[in-house]
Amino acid sequence: MILSFWIVTIHSYFFKNKYSLKMHFDQKMFHVPTFMLISFFFFYHHLSNRDSHKIKRRFKRLLIPYFTWSFVYLLINNIILKVFGIKYFERLISFKDFFFQILLCNIYYSNFWYINVLLFLSLLFSIIAYIAKNNFLFFIQLIGYMTYLLHYSSIYNIFRKHNLFNRFCLSLLLEIQITPVAVIGLTFGYFNLIYYINKCSFRILIFCILFLFCLVKFNIFQNHDGFLYQNVELNTLGAINLFIIFSSLNFESVKNKKLLSFIKLISSNTGGIYYIHSFIRGYLKYFIKSIKYGTFRGTIILYIISHFICFFGSKIFSKNSLKFLFI
Q1: Using CA atoms, how far apart are residues 203 and 306, in angstroms rounded to an integer?
Q2: Torsion of CA 231, 142, 146, 173, to 10 degrees
Q3: Integer Cα distance of 167 and 101 in angstroms
Q4: 86-104, pLDDT tens digit by residue?
Q5: Cα–Cα distances in Å, from 3 out to 20, 257, 267, 270?
């Protein structure tokens, strides 16, 4: 829920000054790397067991919102633009745009770059797992190391020198920058890190909170060239600390059923909120001033509305695969 709200804040809260929350959220881009680490942490055992059912389900869960929302947004944009003259994408979207949106993920709805990278890495790692079998993690770790080196090579300068910052190259740069944290997620899955965290959770929790404070408070790492997530070390360490901190929390000890229900409620449907919040904002800004002007109050309202839409959507379609649009 915290990471999901973090993303909504970055996309909809526009107030900036020296002390603002927006400034910290923009500079410390831990949210997406943490999602990536968590995703591949839980994916490791499916790969190691070559569990084809669970692997297929992962692709189904990602592909359904990736294709469906891209097409739904095309239809809604075109219909509302023609009927009311209100536009979200600034123009009518063609089926050619839809094709390249699916291919490159950033033609008219750039938020889906994360799903695009997640799908690509899931496919790549699955192929390696079936080919290399017992040694698959070693080869994936080599890929993680090479992408880390590639990020600090001259590739960015080459793109900039030859004016190659088209949509394909931006997608490629994002994959290069995100791959190392995905590989770390798989590695943590191999060691079953949560098991060891639970053995000394309090001490680890205190240490990681202190270390996370240092990452947020001080500019420990030098910024490098890149796109969005160029500070690989900072974002990776931030993701690791957030992962460990919340893995250290012993929710099993909570006996209050109402509190557990509340935690379950606010932590559900975060995928759906990510899928729809920017598009919802594009139309709500015409009716809600706080959303239009990008205030923090407007961000909270946007998050709550998005959550309610996803909550009811997941209940309505709970019996079929369209539930993946909202969960």
Answers
A1: 37
A2: -60
A3: 10
A4: 889 989 999 999 999 998 8
A5: 18, 24, 10, 9
pLDDT per residue over 127-161, tens digit each? 999 999 899 999 999 999 999 988 877 666 666 66
Q: What is the reported pLDDT for 327?
A: 95
Least confident of 165-174, 187-196, 276-285: 165-174
Return the SS3 of 300. helix
**The tokens of 136 are what?**
């698959």
Domain parsing of the chain, residue ranges: 2-325
Q: Cα 145 from chain centroid? A: 21
Query: Mean pLDDT across the stretch 65-93?
Result: 94
Q: Are 145 and 151 in contact (CB under 8 A)?
A: no
**Which ranges of 13-112 would DSSP assign to H, the alpha helix?**
21-27, 31-48, 52-84, 95-104
| Residue-wise burial string across 23-56, b where 16 or more C-beta atoms lie within 10 A, e elsewhere | eebeebbbbbbbbbbbbbbebbebbbeeeeeebe
Residue 219 backbone dihedrals phi, psi, to 5 degrees: -85, 80
